[in-house]
Amino acid sequence: MPKISTYNSAVAALEDKMVGTDANDSSITKNFTVKSIADANALLPEVLPDLTDRVLGSNLSGGAENYELGKVIDLTSTLSDNSPILTDKLFGSKAGTNRANNFTVGSILALIPNPFSLSLNATTEVVQNCIDYTTPVGISFGALQSNTDVSISALGAIVFHTTGQYFVELNLTGGMLSPSGTFSTGAIYYAVFINGVQINYTQVNRIVSHTGQTSSDMDTFSNTFLYEATASEVMEVKMVGPSTFGLSSFGTGIAFNFGQAAQIRLSKSN
Where do the domains of the chain lie? Predict the structure, then answer.
């Protein structure tokens, strides 16, 4: 009989046969189908591996070898690091069958539960002016929206319809709306109110306008926080600042177009 290594290589099919010994029948030699071997593998128990355990693999010459897990792990430290994409695949065992499978990165990430679900995403590109440092102005976030959890008016008042924890995200693009062409500084102060009473601290965004400036100096202020809401509560975001300051979307007449002047996103805890 020639050496096994001299035979042609082929891709196994489920009904292909392999020679082996039947331990339950006087150790006589028998043919076993690939499918029966795979089915028997599904019955193997799951155990926690140890670094001194060995796995069966193939060396570069195609020969079978036992490899100690600890040494295999040591080798992985020499591999290059790559950022995975959603369609990349990882090798693992399918629960319930213990059979080997490839799993995409995207399918694995989809198993991770999201603690929050988006309830509101409101934006506007409308320019909104401050009046002075003593008169709070409510910030609008676009057209009226309403759903089971929250609603928002065209003036920016948000009404909670469902009690629960909400993750609030604010993005406000503000600055000097009427540049004077000379060096000047100013600030817009922002605050969040519930039923007319301020919560959290006042936030400030300072803007500098440089000499010879021909377009507005703008900056985007962002703030995130968790809020435990009760049904029927009303949330508003307000600003104060000099009359030459306010919110702008870098729109028509200005040399930029960077998106919304104001955005608010509310995500409710699941």
Answer: 12-109, 116-269
In the predicted model, is pLDDT for residue 182 greater than 70? no
Residue reference for tokens 């320019």: 127
* Residue 182 identity (one-letter amino acid): T
| Pairwise CA distance, residues 174 & 223, whole Å | 14
Do residues 16 and 37 lie in contact, with contact meaning Cβ atoms separated by under 8 Å?
Answer: no
Residue 213, pLDDT score: 56
List of E strands, the chain: 17-22, 28-33, 54-58, 64-68, 89-94, 99-104, 116-124, 128-129, 137-138, 145-146, 150-152, 158-160, 164-176, 184-194, 197-209, 218-229, 234-240, 245-247, 262-269
Token reading at 147: 């759903």
Global pTM exceeds 0.70: no
Domain 116-269 is found in CATH 2.60.120.40: yes
Q: Which residue has the tokens 């965004």?
A: 205
190 φ/ψ angles, rounded to the nearest 5 degrees: -120, 145
d(CA 60, CA 100): 22
